């Protein structure tokens, strides 16, 4: 029995680090090849994986543009570079003499879906940080503003705007699951949040499942990196505001940023690269952190914090500023209540 | 016979990290001159200017998704220099483990995913080894390619446990690491490393890691090729013999390593230079960058990194790349796993350097020997971790200062130079491994290592993307996103 036509993917990289691809290769149980195969997803060309190089690759791009090969998803990794002076020549696609941003605009018109892989392709990301030397932007966002390389009005042939699989880097399964949902026809506009992110991972907060939650509850705070306490009060952690499922999905086995001992920097959000303060330092006004937990009224946060601080168990107070557990939880005799 | 030269422009060059274009002047079926262009400029050094110095640990790793930890390590070393502190013993050992996991993962990726698939191309369909090469190394599909990707993912669990995730961790800090490990974590790390060891021994080497690490000369290597265990390594040695890869891609044979993995006494791989058969010390003050053929302002004279600048000049017609030309005492140097093993004195690497220099075959062997040596060391480092001893020393940043951090990425010597004024980054200069290897010509017209290595490469009738050129380029394991950053 012959299989139906595969869901075809063409992957281009521009102003980024390639880290989303490197992360993608970390897919496990099943691995990347088996996952893609399970959904009949086929890479027409991928810069890391494919055999074709040079003219073999550009011939394939031309065949897609000519409509000879159907393209189901154009995946773009890395920001789109408009500079210098609007020419796009800070990245001319090798061997072609044509700026990559122009290749992307042309190929986007031929694709059923367009997927931004990573925060650079989605919003500009770190490539657009600081003075933004290359006038970098995302496919359909320029930071938090709609627009970007393809423009606010862009819709791919499917009718969807650009799907922004934001993250720096992306979790491997954010990518594979997005592609699988698209290929199954199960990802519609209502499944994307206001920044175009698939809600299957963006409707969670990094705070969910963070192993430091007990410290958070009692405002038992880490004072320096390597401390075990909650990193929100002093070390800039944005886990209570960051949209992602990092602490329930986990990375590279059993990891996440907060499990690795450092703050969440909200890398799935547009303009995360410019927090307006040092990343690992919490800005405060009158001793109260400026960024409050999502959906939490300020007065309540202040009231709860002072109450929680007063009620902090000695165990958490001690452990919060140590790099390993000094006092374990007491063992209670469950028969005596 | 025609002496008429033709020009080939090769790109996009995939199965390297990032985008690469190579211009070739070809005559009489050979490359006569090569010009290597890095076509992507992002300007990370400018992005870093004006920031809090600690932000370098967030920004610098994002230069590169494959050398992310190395970039982080160089930044952490530079910050440690500014603060005048050193990591705690646990911090040093955990940092070694984190960096080594990335470097070994990169060697695995390079061999299986980037380099070997070229031998499964149809152009080699008539070779006796082709069926095996195709079965094991067909791009994205070959049995060994898929097995290696799975093993790499397993190895990166070391990062998940000790550093939260890979790439782009903030676990490496000036004074050590942010996450402690307990005895149970150590057991888990040993289990992960054992699984990696098992796959590499079964499939890649066909022998214990220790036997690979102990290879001591050309004779031992030839014996392995003729009678060694069936394995991907032996397949590679057969292919290399048949295609004479040892005769392909020789550059200047001047090698540079900053030295890697500090231990209680000395480094696992000592640093220095090796040129003309002689080991020499490395003087960081002798490093400069030349902008003559880079599309960068500042072409008047070579710059020391502390005085360097990164001001792109898109109108520059003489420049043919965004890559600057790093030089040590005025000369181009090659860096990478082979260079590192030569400088460190690994006997096989030294023997190959003396006999045939750096070439497509020896660069790959250098990587495979190093992967074995490093994995063995990692097992020992896990046992050295002391759960209740300190993991991260604390320091304070000065308002004014300058410092550099030198480390070794998978693909070679990586340095960060930072100048702090009024508590902010006033200047940040980065020289990455592939900046050395894929350097353009300098003011004296001296080409970089790859440009030299490509001269003489054979070009077959009708080839637009010569396969020999692909072997040579990929033998360096280039990282283009680091090169220009």
Automatic annotation (TrEMBL), chain A:
Residues covered by the Cytochrome-c3 hydrogenase C-terminal domain: 204-279
Binding site for [3Fe-4S] cluster: 246, 264, 267
Broad class of enzyme this protein falls into: oxidoreductase
Catalysed reaction equations from the record: H2 + A = AH2
Principal subcellular localization: other
Compartments (UniProt record): Cell envelope
A single cellular component GO annotation: membrane
Binding of [4Fe-4S] cluster 2, residues: 207, 210, 230, 237
Gene3D superfamilies: Cytochrome-c3 hydrogenase, C-terminal domain, NADH:ubiquinone oxidoreductase-like, 20kDa subunit
Cofactor: [3Fe-4S] cluster; [4Fe-4S] cluster
Recorded superkingdom: Bacteria
GO terms classed as biological process: anaerobic respiration
One Gene Ontology molecular-function label: metal ion binding
Domain NADH:ubiquinone oxidoreductase-like 20kDa subunit positions: 17-181
Keywords: 3Fe-4S, 4Fe-4S, Cell membrane, Iron, Iron-sulfur, Membrane, Metal-binding, Oxidoreductase, Signal
Assembly and oligomerization: Heterodimer of a large and a small subunit.
Family classification: Belongs to the [NiFe]/[NiFeSe] hydrogenase small subunit family.
PANTHER family in alphabetical order: HYDROGENASE SMALL SUBUNIT, NIFE / NIFESE HYDROGENASE SMALL SUBUNIT FAMILY MEMBER
Protein name in the entry: hydrogenase (acceptor)
Phylogenetic placement of the source organism: Bacteria, Pseudomonadati, Pseudomonadota, Alphaproteobacteria, Hyphomicrobiales
From TrEMBL, chain B:
Entry's Gene Ontology cellular component terms: cell envelope
Ranges annotated as spanning the membrane: none
Binding site for Fe cation: 67, 482
Domain of life: Bacteria
Subcellular localization(s) per the UniProt record: Cell envelope
Molecular function terms, GO-annotated: ferredoxin hydrogenase activity; nickel cation binding
Required cofactor names: Fe cation; Ni(2+)
Primary location group: other
UniProt keyword annotation of Metal-binding present: yes
Record has Metal-binding as a keyword: yes
Binding positions for Mg(2+) per the UniProt entry: 45, 430, 485
Signal peptide segment: none
Chain residues that bind Ni(2+): 64, 67, 479
Swiss-Prot/TrEMBL keywords: Iron, Magnesium, Metal-binding, Nickel, Oxidoreductase
PANTHER family registered for this protein in UniProt: HYDROGENASE EXPRESSION_FORMATION PROTEIN HUPK, HYDROGENASE-2 LARGE CHAIN
Family: Belongs to the [NiFe]/[NiFeSe] hydrogenase large subunit family.
Protein name: HupV protein
Species of the source: Xanthobacter tagetidis
């Amino acid at each position: 029995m012959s299989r139906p036509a595969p869901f075809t993917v063409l992957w281009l990289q521009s102003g980024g680090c390639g880290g989303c691809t490197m992360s993608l290769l970390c897919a496990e149980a099943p691995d990347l090849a088996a996952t893609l195969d399970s959904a009949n997803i086929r890479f027409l060309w991928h810069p890391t994986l494919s055999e074709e190089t040079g003219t073999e690759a550009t011939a394939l791009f031309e065949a897609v543009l000519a409509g000879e090969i159907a393209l189901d998803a154009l995946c773009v990794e890395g920001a789109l570079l408009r500079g210098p002076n609007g020419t796009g020549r800070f990245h001319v696609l090798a061997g072609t003499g044509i700026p990559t941003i122009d290749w992307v605009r042309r190929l986007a018109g031929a694709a059923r879906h367009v997927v931004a892989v990573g925060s650079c392709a989605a919003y500009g990301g770190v490539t657009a940080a600081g003075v933004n030397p290359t006038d970098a932007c995302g496919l359909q966002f320029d930071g938090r503003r709609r627009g970007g390389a393809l423009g606010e009005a862009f819709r791919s042939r499917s009718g969807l705007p650009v799907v922004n699989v934001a993250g720096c880097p992306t979790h491997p399964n954010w990518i594979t699951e997005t592609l699988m949902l698209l290929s199954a026809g199960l990802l519609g506009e209502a499944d994307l949040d206001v920044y175009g992110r698939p809600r299957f991972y963006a409707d969670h907060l990094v705070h969910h499942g963070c192993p430091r939650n007990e410290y958070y509850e009692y405002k038992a705070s880490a004072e320096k990196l390597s401390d075990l306490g909650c990193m929100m009060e002093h070390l800039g952690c944005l886990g209570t505001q960051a949209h992602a499922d990092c602490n329930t999905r986990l990375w590279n086995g059993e990891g996440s940023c907060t499990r690795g001992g450092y703050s969440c920097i909200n890398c799935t959000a547009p303009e995360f690269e410019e927090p307006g303060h040092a990343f690992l330092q919490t800005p405060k006004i009158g001793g109260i952190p400026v960024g409050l937990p999502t959906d939490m009224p300020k007065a309540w946060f202040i009231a709860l914090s002072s109450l929680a601080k007063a009620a902090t168990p000695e165990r958490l107070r001690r452990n919060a500023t140590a790099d390993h557990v000094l006092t374990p939880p007491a063992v209670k005799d469950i028969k005596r209540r | 016979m025609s002496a008429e030269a033709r020009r080939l422009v090769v790109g996009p060059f995939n199965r390297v990290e990032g985008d690469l274009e190579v211009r070739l002047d070809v005559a009489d079926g050979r490359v006569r001159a090569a010009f290597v262009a890095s076509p992507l400029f992002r300007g990370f050094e400018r992005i870093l200017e004006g920031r809090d110095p600690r932000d370098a640990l967030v920004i610098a790793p994002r230069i590169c998704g494959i050398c992310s930890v190395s970039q982080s390590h160089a930044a952490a070393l530079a910050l440690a220099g500014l603060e005048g502190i050193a990591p705690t013993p646990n911090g040093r050992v955990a940092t070694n483990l984190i960096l080594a996991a990335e470097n070994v993962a990169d060697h695995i990726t390079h061999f299986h995913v980037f380099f070997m698939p070229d031998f499964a191309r149809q152009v080699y369909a008539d070779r006796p080894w082709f069926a095996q090469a195709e079965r094991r190394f067909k791009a994205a599909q070959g049995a060994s390619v898929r097995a290696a990707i799975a093993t790499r993912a397993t190895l990166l669990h070391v990062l998940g446990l000790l550093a939260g995730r890979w790439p782009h961790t903030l676990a490496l800090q000036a004074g050590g690491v942010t996450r402690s490990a307990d005895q149970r974590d150590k057991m888990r790390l040993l289990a992960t490393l054992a699984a990696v060891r098992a796959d590499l021994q079964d499939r890649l080497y066909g022998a214990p890691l220790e036997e690979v690490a102990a290879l001591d000369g050309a004779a031992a290597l030839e014996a392995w090729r003729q009678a060694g265990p069936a394995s991907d390594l032996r397949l590679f040695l057969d292919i290399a013999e048949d295609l004479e890869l040892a005769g392909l891609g020789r550059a200047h044979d001047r090698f540079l390593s900053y030295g890697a993995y500090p231990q209680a006494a000395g480094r696992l791989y000592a640093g220095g230079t090796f040129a003309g058969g002689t080991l020499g010390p490395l003087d960081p003050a002798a490093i400069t960058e030349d902008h003559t053929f880079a599309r960068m302002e500042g072409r008047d004279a070579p710059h020391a990194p502390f005085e360097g600048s990164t001001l792109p000049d898109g109108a520059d017609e003489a420049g043919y790349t965004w890559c600057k030309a790093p030089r040590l005492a005025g000369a181009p140097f090659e860096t990478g796993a082979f260079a590192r093993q030569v400088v460190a004195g690994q006997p096989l690497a030294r023997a190959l350097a003396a006999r045939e220099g750096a070439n497509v075959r020896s660069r790959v062997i250098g990587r495979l020997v190093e992967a074995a040596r490093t994995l063995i060391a990692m097992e020992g480092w896990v046992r050295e971790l002391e759960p209740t001893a300190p993991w991260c020393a604390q320091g304070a940043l000065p308002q004014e200062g300058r410092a550099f951090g030198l480390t070794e990425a998978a693909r070679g010597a990586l340095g960060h130079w930072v100048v702090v004024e009024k508590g902010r980054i006033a200047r940040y200069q980065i020289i990455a491994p592939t900046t050395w290897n894929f350097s353009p010509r300098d003011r004296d017209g001296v080409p970089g290592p790859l440009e030299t290595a490509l001269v003489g490469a054979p070009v077959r009738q009708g080839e637009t993307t010569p396969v020999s050129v692909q072997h040579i380029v990929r033998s360096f394991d280039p990282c283009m996103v680091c090169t220009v950053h």
